[in-house]
Structures are given as C-alpha cells and as structure tokens.
Design a protein that fits this description.
55% of the residues lie in helices and 13% in strands. By secondary structure, the protein is of the alpha+beta class. The chain has a single domain, classed as Winged helix-like DNA-binding domain superfamily/Winged helix DNA-binding domain (Arc Repressor Mutant, subunit A, Orthogonal Bundle), CATH 1.10.10.10. A two-stranded antiparallel sheet has the order 1-2. It starts with a strand and ends in a 5-residue tail after the last helix.
Length: 78
C-alpha cells in the first residue's frame, strides 16, 4: 500500500501527497533536477518527471519553483 499524507492548504483545499512525492519535492527544494533525483534514488528519470507533473497538478503550481514555494509555505517540506 502506498503511504500518503493529507495537507490542508491555506486556500482550504486538501491535498494528498505520497511519500515519493514529498521526497521528490524535498529534492526539488535542494535544487535537484529530475536526472539528479533519479541518480540519488531508485526512481527512473521518467518516473521522477511523471511525479513532478502530478505534484504540480495537485498543488496547482505553474512550475517546479512554484511547487517548492507552496510546499515550504504550507509546511509540506522544511
């Protein structure tokens, strides 16, 4: 079973993120590219790119930087 965490954003929307998605967000915050994340983890680069697209959609973000900003502001990542 995939582990998920639910977050209630300041706009009132509830977002469910998987452990993988939170891990990828954290690495994006560290400045990692998809290829960097795939090299540091057991994920393929295409899996990382797919997860980034899903994360952007879930958070309503327009780009990776926006997703990281939302995640930091909302306490999803530190």
């Amino acid at each position: 079973m995939i582990s998920t965490e639910r977050f209630i954003l300041s706009n009132g929307i509830t977002v469910a993120l998987t452990t993988d998605e939170i891990s990828i967000l954290s690495k994006l915050a560290d400045g990692c590219r998809s290829v960097d994340i795939s090299e540091q983890t057991s994920y393929s680069e295409s899996y990382v790119r797919n997860k980034v697209t899903i994360i952007l959609s879930k958070l309503g973000a327009t780009c990776r930087t926006h997703a990281v900003a939302i995640s930091l502001r909302e306490g999803i990542i530190k």
